[in-house]
Amino acid sequence: MTELAPDFELANVGPGPDPCSLRALAAGHEFVVLLFQRDFYCTNCRKQIQAVTERYDEFTERDAIVASILPEERERAAEWQASYDLPYPLLADPEAIASDAYDQPVKFGILGRFSDFLGRMPEAVVVDARVDEPTVAWSYAGESTFDRPSIDDILAELDRLREAEPTPTDDA
Question: What is the pTM of this model?
Fold first, then answer.
């Protein structure tokens, strides 16, 4: 069974529509890569978005758009955009609406739910937009702040998915 990708609408401080939804990201692309970040201060998150920026042409060659989702207010996300000039959407998710919809892992029980700094772990999700209703085609849920897929791993997954036929949902 294939899982429908939850739609969302979040403030975007990077390129693209503002507000930005999954539907908007999926329009005109075969794949959407969602990178759920820990928080504003996470150095591993900052390294990841810079690495994606350096290799962004490899994503566009695979007809994929990347969106980084930061569980912070718009102003905080705008500081990242000002520092890193991302060529892809940077979405502010202060209430963790999209993060929760995609089951971004949270550690340390109730304490982790109250503090993203303590509890939120990184997650990467690839959404297949080749079907009428976008579906979650692949995801990687980190178990620590360091546990995230490499850029090569994400690109390899996109290659694998491109070679496969799109899988419609059971609901479609």
Answer: 0.89
